[in-house]
Here is the input.
Amino acid sequence: MWTIYLKELLELARDRKTFIFTVLIPIVALPLVFGGFVYLSSTIFKHASQAELSYAIFGQQHAPQLAQRLAREQGFKEVGLADPAQIKSAITNERIKFALVIPPDFGGQLAQQQQATVALHYNSAVTVDITRQRVQAIIEAHNASLRAEVLSKMKLDQEQLQFALNPVVLEDHTTADKRQQLGALMGGFLPYILLIVCLMAAMYPAIDTGAGEKERGTLETLLLAPVSRGSIVLAKFLVLFTVGLTSALLMVVSLGLLLFFFSHAMTAEMAQAVRSIGVFDLAMVALMLVPSAAMFASLLLSISIYAKSYKEASGLISPLIMLAILPTMIALLPGVELNWFWAMVPLTNVSLAMKELVKGTMDYRLFYVILLSSTLIAGALLVLCRWWFTREEVLFRN
Here is the structure.
């Protein structure tokens, strides 16, 4: 068995593609992509919140104060339009980002202490609605000034005025420290990255060790060797397990170093939160990857052995990526927290456990339950793979 294992590893080590998928991508490419995406997204959001918004306003004579507030606001530029009928085409052609239409009875409704309406025209077919958020902030500021103006006529003192404006003020006191806040944000995406890396690193070797052997005609020679089929399956399984787990562990180390170096550019509190994620926590995250890598190795080997050719194996394995992503994405949904129910759901339990480990709030009773259940599932899949390998109609479909 170990001879086959070392032979397979040696063949993979000589292959340049294996080095790229197993070492180069998880250590260099993915951390750089992940760090670059975080930097790029934060830069884009900052630019979008400060970028100049061109707008048109109709009926400004009915609300001169609101029109003046918009004109004074930094980041807003008025563009003249002759007719409200041009609003849609102007937004489509990106002459303006939004338009406000103020009805003629706007001032009269406010004078009678009735609620008035301003029509906002803009393109809402965007992922993050920055335009409406910025306009809404101006409207809220204008509402606050109108309330203060009305209430000031009642000759209220400062405390009475504050009570009239905001009778109840919500004061936040979070029980989560900076590490828990950071862990909730980062811990949701960390399992997604690690599990996908673990799966994708083992995909190419899996295709090669199963369907590749069929195409090269070496599978029959291997079956004639004085080695049991169980030993052959176990050797091939261990190769895929080693490659997938090694790649994911290298990714853990690489991300840890990336966070450590980037912590110097963070605030003092955030940098301290990053450094509070210790070696023990990262070791527990790595331990969660062991049964996950075993599950992926068994599934990949079963599919590859079934496939007639390299091309068919690639097509059959591709849907497995989606099946791995969905349970991982469940951990990102609101209200999904680690409990006894989710501790039994494959991959979702691992994702939730990793998030709790990064947050520093792991219940280790559930940790051992997850580790045990995931190990049992991985063992069952390996037994299934062993049975699959003994079937002649599977091995010799071509």
The chain has a mean pLDDT of 80. Residues 180 and 361 are 8 Å apart (CA to CA). The radius of gyration is 30 Å. The first helix runs from residue 2 to 13.
